[in-house]
Amino acid sequence: MKRLWVLLGAGLLPLLAEAGPAINVGVVYDYLDGDKSTYLKRVFNGGDSTAFVKINIHEIIYDADGRPTELPVKSLADSSARDGLMASPARLIVPVNGMQGTRLLFMGERERERYFRVRFVPVVPEKEDEFAVSVEERDAYQQTLAAGVNVLAGYGTIFFVRPKDARFNTQIDERPGQYALRNDGNTVVVVDDLKDCAVSDENDCQPVTKTHVLPGRTFRFEKQAGRQYRFKLVEGAAQKNVEVKG
To answer: Which residue positions does the secretion signal occupy (predicted)?
Structure first.
């Protein structure tokens, strides 16, 4: 069974397969720049049967302690449009070894950065799912899968919507025994591909990590003598290689 570990709580949505559709949504983290309002997300099916995929979106709200809560996306006041992210289409039929795309469209308030969980969930189509298939096609598909035990694995991704006036301002505080990076901007920065290795043995390394530092938050680690720390500091389209010695 496939596994996908996602920071900020995204991850694998196991449903129960040996054969059947096997979707791939590409990268787990997507970012919508301040001057953009739409984003094309593609779904590939590497399985041996058609994938019927439903797309569900919830907004992630963080409290003062950084704990996330997922809430349904609300509608704009006096409008049927959503105040947040929506997928068009929200249902995909992806053929074997084929690819389909959905356009993620953001509408609403954008004075601050906002965060969304986008789930791509393969399903066995039912009448109420509103897939564009006939009753006969649904029955034939269900009979195909009924021959064995099937696993339909879906994926949850994190979608970052940067504010309209995105501004990066990363402050570094390095002291004996500690390294701290504070995000004083108004949009997320990424500490990517962090490697913690012994100076004397390049094979003596901790697992590589990736951390998203939200606005107003601080990322820090303890420096140890005889070890070195390398990572990429990603601020939007800009990347900088950083090396820190213990």
So the answer is: 1-19
